Amino acid sequence: MGEFKRTVVRELPERKGEISPESQFWNSYEFPVTIKEFDSISHLDFSPIEPHQVAVTTSNKIRLFNPINNQVDRTFSRFKDRAYCGSFRHDGRLMVAGGEEPVVKLLDVSGRAILRFFSGHKRPVHLSKFTVDGLKVFSGDDDSCVRCFDISSGDNVNIFEEHKDYIRCGDANKASRDIILTGSYDHTARLFDLRTSTSIMSVNHGKPVESALFMPSGNIFLTAGGNYVKVWDALAGGKLLRDVWQQSQDDNVSLVPRKPWTVADWFFRYVELNNARSLHCIIRNELAVAFNSSNSFSSAEVLPKEMHVKVYDAATYGLLASMDYPAPVLSVAVSPVSDLLVVGMSTGLLSIKHKKKDGSPQTEAEKQKKQREKRLALRYFNKGNMYIPQEGDTLVPLKQREDLARYDRLLKRFKHSKALDDAFKISVRRKTPYVTFSVIQELSRRNTLKASLSGRDEKWLCAMLAFLKKHISNPNYVSVVIEVTDIILEIYESVVSSSEPVKKSLTNLRAVIDKELNYHQSLEEIQGMLDVLLIASNADLDSNPDLKIPEMTDIFKNQTAGTSNSMEVTEKR
């Protein structure tokens, strides 16, 4: 008795796109080092000076992690309640932080001392940052008030009370020491000049603003909130340049740029972070990366259920990379030299990814040592399934039981209708339609397809016709679709007139076929136009023999391959 041959599943090859340099960058990080904190991590910020410590704001403290050994160098714990927005100054010597207490604290990075308390706020302070010159600190609280303090004297030099709701984000203009940007839950972002007492510009984002960021040039700024990011031109009076929508409709967005590698061709790439919860921070790096000379930014999206980061290209908005995380992301930061990616999550997990380093002599020596150890241990593991037969050994083949799919086991027992039912399950026909069509082709080869399609109820017929309608446009399946459609029309000709759902499904299938025929007819008309133009162009070949015009008569040959088969279905009806 011959052995059963399993069904040949003709899986279509996948198209592999080119890997862009940006995709290679995001995929070049090592496996992350995970550290567990006691509370959610609300803010991350890298020191601009080496060794580029990262400030992790969590619970009622701020921890400074050393990126070399991933250990805590220093902890600032002099907060009575939650701490917010621990940010470095441009020289890395000072830090400023807010909190549930209505005060802003100026911290000395080299020690644990609090140099100054800036008072004046009445409610929790979620925004606290330095101006670009490092001589002032501006902050925003839940009382919709923006205050600016002088570091040397500790005086409150500016008070802006134009916002009407909580202030959650802000940024300092890199090109001007007197311009700051703030975003609020009143759906607006405002530009303030510290030399005046009122705002100089206001834009309406449309939803509560979770993050706001200045471009390094200072002429363009971005606001993020809801499920989209808006790009504004400050020099044009707050003109909207771009409205970038995210795929998720229920998430908030925050902006995070990353530091570049070189400054040969100047352009800027930014990262948008889409979170399950609101974010309170923006990380800035000034320099640019040298891939091309066009302005662009990448975006990363974190979905609340899937909990992963997706990186998109701003030029094409195509997916560049994807990074999964075990919990919703609240904050993210990239080191100034782009060798470290740190992500903070709502469960208190801190993920630290290091950039993969190039091979060094020491690394190569370690690899050779591991290979020697592996060869020495080979004799121990050379047994059982790992045993290598020697010359003169007699090999006895062991026949193993073949693991068949369920539809193959049913076909082996000649249960053709049940095999078709198994291949036509929702999980199979939606995810792997080529399996369904392969089983149908096997039934056709056995001359049992007509019997397998007989005796079906109205609901099953409607589902099959909807499946055929979905794939009638695919040239890989069109021949099978036509064969199944012919058999259904032959068997259930009397049922069509009495069943309204089946009649409606057939009408929808006919509409799709007519649409495909019109599409192919339009392609043939275009082909004729191109032939006329090419014939006229070929007339110049006599005068210029070196000129070669390519023939284009076969451009649409592959696209119109299914036209004749589709016409057969129409004629038979």
From TrEMBL:
Species name: Stichopus japonicus
Name of the protein this chain belongs to: U3 small nucleolar RNA-associated protein 15 homolog
Pfam families found in the cross-reference section: UTP15_C, WD40
Main localization (coarse): nucleus
Function: Ribosome biogenesis factor. Involved in nucleolar processing of pre-18S ribosomal RNA. Required for optimal pre-ribosomal RNA transcription by RNA polymerase I. Part of the small subunit (SSU) processome, first precursor of the small eukaryotic ribosomal subunit. During the assembly of the SSU processome in the nucleolus, many ribosome biogenesis factors, an RNA chaperone and ribosomal proteins associate with the nascent pre-rRNA and work in concert to generate RNA folding, modifications, rearrangements and cleavage as well as targeted degradation of pre-ribosomal RNA by the RNA exosome.
UniProt lineage: Eukaryota, Metazoa, Echinodermata, Eleutherozoa, Echinozoa
Gene Ontology cellular component terms for the protein in this record: nucleolus; ribonucleoprotein complex
Keywords of the record: Nucleus, Repeat, Ribonucleoprotein, rRNA processing, WD repeat
Record's subcellular location: Nucleus, Nucleolus
Gene Ontology biological-process entries: positive regulation of transcription by RNA polymerase I; rRNA processing
Domain U3 small nucleolar RNA-associated protein 15 C-terminal: 387-533
Each WD repeat, start to end: 118-159
PROSITE patterns, A to Z: WD_REPEATS_2
Gene3D superfamilies: YVTN repeat-like/Quinoprotein amine dehydrogenase
Claim: Electron transport is one of the keywords in the record: no
